[in-house]
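so i finally got all the pieces together for this one. its two components total, 1025 residues if u count the protein bits. some of the lines might not be protein, just check the labels. i wanna see the whole assembly predicted at once instead of chain by chain like last time, that was a mess tbh
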Amino acid sequence: MSSKLLSRVRSLLERQERIGVDDCQELFQVKDLAAIATLARIPRERRHGRNAHYRAIVPLTVATVDDLAQAGGQLEPESGAVGIAVRPDGQAAATLGALMELQSAMRLLPLPATLFISAGIIARAAEATGSSIPEAVQALAGGGGVFINGDEAELSDATFRTAHTAAAIPFPQWLAVHRAAHAAGLKTGASMLYTVHDRPAEYAAHLQAIRQLQDETNGFVQFVPMGVQNRDVAEWYLVAPTAAQSLRVVAVARMFLDSIPHIAVAPSLITSEESFVALSYGANMVDSTIAVGDVCSDEGLGVAAAEGASLPVIAASTARQRGGILPRTIHSRIVESRHIPVPMDAAFGEISSLTILAQQ
Amino acid sequence: MPTLAPSRKKLRVVAADFLNSLPLTVEMAEDELFNFEYVIPSEGARRMMEQEADIALLPVAAVAEIGGLEVVPGPCIGANGRVESVVIVSQVPLDKVQRLLIDNASRTSVVLAKIFMDSVGKGDIPFIRMPGQAIPANVKGTDAGLLIADIAFRESKQFKYRHDLADAWKRLTGEPFVFAVWAAQPGVLTPELVERINRRFWDGIARKHQIIEEWAAKHGMPKAEVADYLDERIQFNLNKSAWYGMQEFFRLGSNMRLLPDARVEFATPQEPQNGINTFGKFVPEVVPYSRSYGVDRILARADAGRRISIHDAERLYLEADLTDIGEVANNIRNRMNPGGRVSYIIARNINYTNVCNVDCGFCGFYRSDDPKRKGHNEGYVLTRQQLREKMDELADGDGVQALVQGGVNPNLPLEYYTDLLRWMKREWPQIQQNSFSADEVLGLCPNTTPQEISAVLHALRDAGLDTFAGAGAEILVDKVRKRVSYKKSRSAVWLEVMRQVGIMGMKASVTMLYGMGETTRDKFAHMAKIRQLQDEVSPFMVFITWPYQKGPEQKIKSFDQAGATYLRVQGISRIFFDNIQHIMCSWVTQGPDIGQTALYYGADDFGSVMFEENVVSASGTTYKMNANSMEHCIREAGFIPFRRKGDFSEWDLVEHQMLQNTRVL
């Protein structure tokens, strides 16, 4: 089955034709990662050659406008950074007014700042303010400097969402926010949650939903697979996907999402080292703006609790590299992985490498 | 006079001062353009390999092994028929010969001997290494011996059967055999320089009578015999026929997996007309290496089972796509270790002492034995009780191997180690000892002679050492070793320890610690030295590499730290080491994710679960895995996990318990 599938997919990719949902589902089950990587390189290299992109910005999470002012005052010039991704949390993300106030305050920061928010934040803020989603999106778009990332896309499957990501907005609402953003001329990001237990059918259905919206609006500029993270337990391997699973998801996403320009990986999720390896498995972008807290989940913990008692636990923990990664480090690691670094600003506009290197 | 060389210092030229090389070298040695030095052939090859020489009169096997060199057209050392200086001798006919005694000093001659023995249906007999001077006395019964140079002249006539290998080559291929050529680092040769080397050669030929007289007088040989050798036996022209002979040697050597798949680039003094240059010499029509031989071709040839050269490995490291390397490494891994299985072992490191007098700049673990040095009071030697607790914990976890390793502690005599091993074997007979580094052994050998090293290793084995851990290889290039660990053994001494391990039939692991500022060439020169030693005496079961982990205390700056670089280096190592069966991934330094990904880059072994580790963790790297997480990672990557013993055979519970029961109470 596998060789026929791989041959069929290769033929489709070489002819620049789309692969279907059924093939996508089957690809998620192929264990031969080398073969998957070879296929993913076809669309990756056609679109980007050896280029590897990153946004030369640093994330800054704030709970209030006052936090922003305080953080801005203390902000050290980050080596290589050309901008700041302001991620509102708590009170700063509670209402549309708070978000717009944050937008205004961002202008005082020492570097150009962009408001990084999820569809969920917009939907909840709109509801709290009594606005419709299109109205909220329009208002934020009018304030300038906003990027709607892919957070809270999770998995489109309703059963999964109910069981594991109940706090996230419903998937139709997630789609509605992005549709409205695209209509307002904003470029946005998409994502997919994947787990230690492979869910080929759910993954394929989720990617299909994203591809359909992209066909309709052409507003997604980036797709980021997000693995469930919970590594601070002894039996981490029962709750967090392994590198092989992560690389497989990246590769299949590149093959299936033919109309989304950038397939990104987050160093905070799959370790900084693995993220540069992923550049050879279909990813063309390393996105350091994603925080690990975005995708922490207790999915699978029940399994660990059930089986953990009988496991001889020799290891106490598995440390993961979750520290921040600076643009200049991303730049040099891309070079070391034999790709050509292409720095971008928050709006995915390419900037000269000299801008980054001059700051070192 | 036109500019002859780049405007830097004098070109570094090396050659052996053998009789047959003197016509090529005598004038070169007096040329002010060159910083010329006579060295033994293996030293010449080392200097070219480590880029410490610009031009060398190089044995052709070394030309193939290094790869990417430019060969000077015109002169060579060859033979178009009988040469009398490379001879296989025996007291019985070849069809009765059971073993061939060889001196590995001349790799070209050994490869030629293997080709010859294969051509007469004796390709599968064992080749036994020993010093060249000892070979004639040991050629008895059904043993044959390969005699080279002076020993061949002096001793071959006493044997009933003699096979001149140059003559045999001529009969086999119809072409002359080329022993050595002038080879240069890429970019060194200019047309003017090629002309100059040729002029020096002809000037040397003009001094042949002087060479003959001086050699005969110095070595007490009849002048006629010396003259006959130079005039009749040696061919000095790399003519068309010799060129084809050399190509055929490369082809057969590669087919038999004795040599890398060599491609030789010629430096041409000028555009040849009808294949003839201004000296009237043949200039082969060759497409420059860099144009004809892309990384895709290197990978394809490696995938087909061909050995790659150092230069090929460098090009893969610098140019090849990561997943292309992975694909070929994976194919080779599947050929060498079929069945899609990945092994792991339950073992533990026991760092019995952290006291060390070697002062490696990259080590955060050791404490100096010098009372004046910082941290001296933190030095320890584990007590028997502490060791017992660690061994009991290992035994309770069904452990099968202890890696007893520490600093080079000058206060511990050989008896400490032998007593320790005997005690461990007696108390925990089911646990194998895979212990000690070359420098720990050398710490017990004040004179570092092969005999002394061998005696210490035998004592350790007799006391219970099963396999030799063999750590501390770092980078086997002395300019690197001097910089990062100036007191540590030099590469030749480290290799001698491993040579003795191989000679006594023990098995070892071998490592590479990169990322300390070494060059790309240094990495693969390291691998080449290991591969060559493995060809000689096969001491190595497994190769493991990892990047240097810089901690707060280490002085050496770190480089090449990316996980992608780790996968690249490990993948190339699988391609390079066609003679080492296993590649172990280093999840301890890279973490479980890169460790798992490394299974797609040639690794067939996941290493050990970690009870305790003190050396890498001294640099702040603290990954840990248990057997379940290892098996999960292996399965999730599409492989079948199995638990192994120290010798890489499958662990068996019943056998383990039987051994446990043999404990002497």
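The mean pLDDT of chain B is 89.
The CA atoms of residues 310 and 524 of chain B lie 6 Å apart.
anyway lmk what u think
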